[in-house]
Structure formats: C-alpha cells, structure tokens
Amino acid sequence: MPPAPPPPDEPAPAPTRGFDPDATPGGDVLAGVAKRFRILADTEFHGDSPAYERIARRLAEDPGPVADLVGVTAERFLPVLTLAAVHELALREPRGALARAYADGTDPWPAFHDVLTTRLPEIRATMATRRIQTNEVGRAAVLLPTCHLLEQRHRRPLALVEIGASAGLNLYFDEFAYHYRGGNADPETVLGDPDSPVQLHCELVGDGHPPLPPPGVLPTVVARDGIDLHPVDVTDPAARRWLRACLWPGLPERAERLDGALALALADPPTLFAGNALDLLAGVLAALPESALAVVSSTWVLAYFDPDERARFWELLQGCGRARDLAVVTGEFPTVVPWVPAAPSPPSMEGRGASLVGLATWSDGACTTEALAWVHPHGRWLEWFG
Ligand SMILES: C[S@@+](CC[C@H](N)C(=O)[O-])C[C@H]1O[C@@H](n2cnc3c(N)ncnc32)[C@H](O)[C@@H]1O
C-alpha cells in the first residue's frame, strides 16, 4: 500500500511509506515537527520538489527556526502551513531573494531562513487565518475515466458534488484537456477540450487500461456543486494568491494549470456551499435532478476527518445510497477509505506517493465497492487496475 496526502502531509506505518493522517510521531512538539519535516523530505518532496526537500531537511535537523510557530496551528499542519505562509510572502515579493531562489532552482535555504526569522509576525498571522486548501486540478486525471465508466454503466448524465472542494476547480474537469501517455494511450492521446486553458499531462503505468472516452467525447455533467468548510472565493485576489502559495514552488506546470482553472472558474464561478460535508451532503444530494446519477467526489479530503468523522461519513453515504442511486469516487490515502477493497501494490518506483482511487456505488439501495487505480497525488501518473 502507498501513501501521500494533501493536507498536512505525513508518514504512514509499514507497509505504507509516506503520509498517514492519523500518525502521531510522539516526543515533544518540536521534535514531532522535526520528524514531520523529515518524513516530508523523504516522501512527499523527494523527487517532486527539490526546493522543499532542502528546506525540510534543514528544519528536520534543527527545527529551532519554527519554534515560535508551535501552537499557531495543530502540530501535524505546522510544517506544510509554514512552507505555504512563507511561499505567500515570496509571491508578494517576486523580486526578493526567496522568490528568485525558487524560480532559479538555487538553494533556497538562506533566503527562506532569512524570511522565516525576520517576518515571523506576518507568517504567524497568515498561519492563524489560512488553512492548507491546495486545489490540485491534476487530480482530474482520475475523474475523467471514472466518470466515463459511470456514464457507460448507468446510461445517465452525471450530477457532481465534490466534498472538500476548496475553490471548486475540479468541478470543471469536463472542460480540461487531458494528455495521457503510455498504456492504452500510447504514444499520446489528447482528450477533452484541446484548446482548454488547463492542459493536464498524465502517464499511464502498469498493464491496466483506464476506460478513456473517445476523443471529443466527455461525460455529460448536468449539475456541479461543491461543499467546503471554508470555500475559496476565486473572485478574491488574495484567496487566489493563497491557492498559489499552497502549491510547491519551482513547479511551473502546477502553477499554470491552477491559473488555467482559475480562469475557467472566474468566467463561471462554481456553486460552493460553506459548511461541513457531514451536515450538508444529504441536502445537496436531495436537490439534484432525479434523472441524473449523483456522483460524490472526494480527493485529499478525508485525511482531514478524524476516524469518527470518517465512520459517520460512511454511514451518511449508506443513508444517501438508500434514498437514491449514488456513486462515490475517492482519491485518498488508503487508510482513510476503509470501505475500498484491498488493492494490488502500487507501481514500485513511485509507490511512496500514491493515492488509492475507490468507487462505491448504490443501485436500488444495493452497495458495491471497488478499488480502481493508484494515482500520483497530483495526477502525474495513473495505474489503473479496476
Ligand atoms: C487539500 S484540500 C483538497 C481540495 C480538493 N479536493 C482537491 O483535491 O484539489 C482539502 C479541503 O477539504 C476541506 N475540508 C476538510 N474537512 C472538511 C469537511 N468536514 N467538510 C467540508 N470540507 C472539508 C478543506 O477546507 C480543504 O479545502
């Protein structure tokens, strides 16, 4: 089994490597923070973000520079929230030494350390008011084949409800361009809208073939709603900058696809309901057109729930599935979706960063659960086996 989450990223027990949302490193808080930085460096950042890997290793060796941030947020969120708060300052000051180091790929530690130690009050203020709400549209690489599969099976249009939607950018998955490479897309298949401002690139690995729609064909989506504890308002420039700050620096392709998705959302802002998905989901589902298949999606959200909330979420889904036909697509850390059946090992090279794609469906009240794929946390690759 693999690991890797979006919120506060963390480690996982054997046999999984990487993030485990429920893990508690133990020891005093600062030692725990140092340990979390080390795990991030070894798992999430290694091979994906050289800048953050360097910074995280320095703070794992000596967490002293973040000591004054302890208590501003929960321990498990502190490392990633600190990185994002400092990144936000770099975005506000693009000519500063840190922004230049991030852009040039030079060692960011001296400039990062300087910002961290000299701008602590601003960093604290950001961390006290913001949360990690990374809205990664690369994850739509999972939604396209899964929603195509659902439309094929159920022969009905889809009504999409995303829980933990952040800014709701993945609700526009049927307006993106998808460049799948390898597997049954060899050498390269371009699906969706080739002229979309969002160009996603995903490598298909392993022997399985995801159910890709033919070129020019996309799932028919008749409703799209999001629910988030704190929906991100795409019309607010400061909120847009924070979304950017939640991405890792030095990865222009992530920033480009975020900008493209924000352009789509600004042209037609999504419907986002503010509140806890546990409280709102049943009502939102009940308001969807009866003729459509209701599809709930959850990507990198359930790691933020505590185990009791996850159990309540599953009970809630059972009740909703008795009330109407329903499909629930999850792209999550495997231990937070215990209803998804055990899956084969993820691709050995990249296993440490994989999320599990699961599908639960209710037809006439009967529930079926499936494991469909492993996916890179940002949709860089997909191993379909379902
Ligand atoms: C890491 S973001 C993921 C955003 C999006 N799903 C994606 O994959 O790009 C997690 C989001 O879940 C939201 N969230 C966490 N717990 C929630 C809850 N109980 N109900 C609704 N939203 C929640 C957070 O506010 C945050 O915006």
Name a few traits of the molecule.
disordered N terminus, 11 strands, binds S-adenosylmethionine, 11 helices, about 375 residues, 2 domains, alpha/beta, single chain, eleven-stranded mixed sheet
Write the topology of this structure.
Elements: H1 29-45, H2 50-61, H3 78-92, H4 97-104, H5 109-118, H6 120-129, H7 140-154, E1 158-163, E2 177-181, E3 188-192, E4 199-205, E5 221-228, H8 237-246, H9 252-267, E6 271-274, H10 277-286, E7 293-299, H11 307-323, E8 326-332, E9 355-363, E10 366-375, E11 381-384
Parallel strand pairs: 1-5, 1-7, 2-4, 4-11, 5-6, 7-8
Antiparallel strand pairs: 2-3, 8-9, 9-10, 10-11
The site of S-adenosylmethionine (SAM) has 26 residues, from strand 5 and helix 10.
Tell me what the structure shows.
This protein is an alpha/beta fold. The chain folds into 2 domains: 29-129; 137-384, no CATH class. It contains 11 helices and 11 strands. The chain has helices spanning 29-45, 50-61, 78-92, 97-104, 109-118, 120-129, 140-154, 237-246, 252-267, 277-286, 307-323; strands spanning 158-163, 177-181, 188-192, 199-205, 221-228, 271-274, 293-299, 326-332, 355-363, 366-375, 381-384. It has an 11-stranded mixed β-sheet, with helices on both faces. A hairpin with a 2-residue loop joins β9 (355-363) and β10 (366-375). α1 (29-45) runs antiparallel to α2, α3 packs across α6 and α10 packs parallel to α11 (307-323). S-adenosylmethionine binds at residues 6-7, 131-136, 139, 163-166, 170, 227-230, 276-278, 299-301, 304-305.
